Amino acid sequence: MNGIASATAWALIHFLWQGTLVGFATGGVLAMLKRRRTAVRYAVAVGALSIMAALPFITALRLAPVQIETLHEVSAVSASVVAPPGSAGVSPASAVSQTFGASLLPWILRLWLAGVALLAMYHLGGWSLARRLSRYGQPVSAAATALAQDLRDRLGIRRWVTLLESSTVSVPMVIGWLRPMVLIPASVLAGLSPAQLEAILA
C-alpha cells in the first residue's frame, strides 16, 4: 500500500471524529438560529456540508508525507525481522505491533470504496426511476399551464418548470434540477380547484 492510499485510509478514520464534531457544532448553531430566516439556516447547513466534504482531502494531504515516511520505516523493520540470526534489528514482537495497524489500512480503504460503489448504484437507480417517471408524464391542460406560468412569474422563478400529468405517481412531486418538472397525479388533478392547484404548485 503506497503512501497516498495509506493517507487516504487514515483520513477516513479521522473523519469519524471530525465529522461528528462538525455535526454537533452545526446542530448547536442551527438551534441558536431557530428564529432566523430560512436562508441563513440553509447557508449554515451548506457550509457544514462543504467543510465535511473538504476535511478528508485536507487531512489526506497533510498525512501523505508522514505516511510515506512511515511506510519506509515499516519496510526497514520488516527487513530487519527476516535478517540472518545475530544481525542487528528489532524484535519480531515489536515489528508485529508496528505493522499490524498498517495491515488493516488496505481493508479500511477497500470497505470504504465498496460502500461508495453501493451508494452510487443506489442513487443511480433512484435517478433512473425518476427519469422513467418523467417520460410517462403527459402535458396538462392549457388552463393549468397558464396557471403555472403566472405563478412562476409572481414567484420570480426565471427557470422554466414543466408541469405534467402522470398516472404513475400518487402524490405531487418535483423531479430534476437543471430541467425541473412537476408531476401531478391524474386523479388528484381532476378533483382540484384552480386555487387548490395553485397552492400545491407554489
Notes on the protein architecture:
It is a single chain. This protein is α+β, with helices and mostly antiparallel strands and 202 residues long. Helices cover 72% and strands 7% of the residues. It is built from six helices and four strands, in the order αααβαβββαα. It has helices at residues 3-32, 38-81, 92-135, 142-155, 186-190, 194-201, and strands spanning 138-139, 162-166, 173-175, 181-185. The protein has a four-stranded mixed beta sheet with strand order 1-2-4-3, sandwiched between helices. β3 (173-175) and β4 (181-185) form a beta hairpin. α1 (3-32) runs antiparallel to α2, α1 (3-32) packs across α3 (92-135) and α4 (142-155) packs across α6 (194-201). The longest helix is centred in the first third of the chain and has 44 residues, at 38-81. The chain is elongated, with a radius of gyration of 28 Å.
Order of helices and strands: HHHEHEEEHH
Principal-axis shape equals elongated
What order do the strands of the largest sheet run in, or round the barrel if closed?
A: 1-2-4-3
Can you tell me the residue ranges where pLDDT is under 50 for at least 5 consecutive residues? 86-91, 93-98
Question: Descriptors for this entry?
Answer:
202 residues; 4-stranded mixed sheet
SSE topology sketch:
Blueprint lengths: L2 H30 L5 H44 L10 H44 L2 E2 L2 H14 L6 E5 L6 E3 L5 E5 H5 L3 H8 L1
Parallel strand pairs: 2-4
Antiparallel strand pairs: 1-2, 3-4
Q: What is the gist of this entry?
A:
This protein is α+β, with helices and mostly antiparallel strands and 202 residues long. Helices cover 72% and strands 7% of the residues.
